[in-house]
Amino acid sequence: MQSRHSPQGGTAVVAARHTDEPDTTEIRRLADAAGYEVVAEHTQRTPEDAGYAMGRGKVERVAATAADHDADAVVYDGGLTPGQYSNWVELLPPGTDLLDRYRLVLGIFAEGAADRAAQLQVELATLRYRLPRLRQVTEESLLNRATEKGSVVLDVEDRIDRLHDELRAVSDRAERRRVERRERGFDPVAIAGYTNAGKSTLLHRLADDLSVGALDEGHPDLDETAAVEDRLFETLETTTRRATIGGRRVLLTDTVGLVDALPHDLVASFSATLDAVADADVGLLVVDASDTLDEVREKRRVSLAELDDPRCELLVVLNKCDLLTEEELAARREDVAELDRVDDVLAVSAVEGTGVETLRDRIGDALPGETLRAELPNGGETESFLAWAHDHGTVTDREYTGETIRFGFEARPGVVERARSRVDDLREGTADRSS
To answer: What keywords does the record list, in alphabetical order (predicted)?
Structure first.
């Protein structure tokens, strides 16, 4: 059975080389996410061969296995340079597609990208990947002759330039939207983490207009076997929802799941994900605590490396804590708490709801804010201001004292500054009318 995302599909032979014991679990899951049925695999522990990434003899055996199974593709767990790619193609049976880890993930994201920005970013990453390989496999003489008349290489270069221009325009519009949201008093909170950590389920727990009960019946986090059978890349674009946390209006952004060993261009294509975390007031780094301790450490390392030391307060959320013993959870909490970059560690079960209210309280504490206390004349202008204040922050301790209204206003520092200016204007207007 093919997975939900099937940009390619068919049968595949997996090849992997590692200095330690090769583990093909994730590359098999990636192949499944791309719609491939893995029919065989070859692994190798020897040092890398500069010409093939694996030994030539091993590559020949991979090619023979692909021929025996009439496989549609060979999937290599790692990156192949243009030269290595060309050498593999020469050995593989005619018509057998060659996918390294990077191209495999590019295909998954190309199929799943929904919004225009994501589509442009993934297309750009794909063309950047293809360009040096096109150059490598094209005969030099043919390339030279085609240069004067145009060639596929030149067409790709032109398209890359156009994509850069389109992405700059999209990025400018996204930046304007972020500024507008902040001015309206929304606090941005980003949910990030390794793919399949449970970010989408946590979003459903925290958002005002969503619930875990609204998740599709087949959603992996709701499956009792989800700890070992989750599908990769359930979320292929950022999703933003409103939430109310501690009386504050929050915008929660569920970001694309991260994965290990991706090329710089592909990571750069996740700019919506990385920007959402960089611009957030609070970042939630969700970790699948049901993984082994070594897996938790590795996925946490990958996630922190890709997030590139965000400015926001960073809370690590150990999800799926209901699947652990107290001793196992304590070991993971202790391991994560040692990191300098992490501000706090919280354990939750997004499916069961365990620890979610504590997480809400901690997010509220982490949101930047100031409080303005004021007293204004009881009248239409003040009521209009208070309506604005409700839309941009939290109005507290409202007290009517006959001719005046006393109140507190809590919000982001920039919003409080705007409120203070409006309060001063109202006071000056009252003074002018009374003089």
So the answer is: GTP-binding, Magnesium, Metal-binding, Nucleotide-binding
214 vs 164, more confident? 164
Is the pTM for the entire model greater than 0.70? no
Annotation-wise, does 73 bind a ligand? no
3 state DSSP class of 367? coil
Q: Is 193 annotated as a binding residue?
A: yes
Q: Which CATH architecture has domain 186-366?
A: 3-Layer(aba) Sandwich (3.40)
- The rounded radius of gyration (Å) of the Cα atoms in the chain is 27
pLDDT at 222: 36
291 is in an annotated binding site: no
Q: Where are the domains of the chain?
A: 10-109, 114-169, 186-366, 370-434
Residue whose C-alpha is closest to residue 105's, from 84, 126, 132, 134: 126
The residue whose two tokens read 């100031």 is: 370
425 in a known ligand binding site:
no
The CATH number that domain 10-109 falls under is: 3.40.50.11060
The answer to whether 49 and 66 have CB atoms below 8 angstroms apart is no
User: 319 among the known binding-site residues?
Assistant: yes
Grouping H, G, I as helix, E, B as strand and the rest as coil, residue 187 is strand
Q: Is 49 annotated as a binding residue?
A: no
Q: Which carries the bigger pLDDT value, residue 115 or residue 289?
A: 289
pLDDT (tens digit per residue) in 109-135:
777 666 777 788 788 888 888 888 777
Tell whether 112 is in a known binding site: no
User: What was the pLDDT predicted at 247?
Assistant: 81
196 assigned to a ligand binding site = yes
Dihedral, CA of residue 152, residue 133, residue 267 and residue 92, to nearest 10 = 120
Report the CATH architecture of 370-434: 2-Layer Sandwich (3.30)
Establish whether domains 186-366 and 370-434 are of one fold: no
Token digits of residue 266: 């592909």
Q: Is the pLDDT of residue 346 over 50?
A: yes
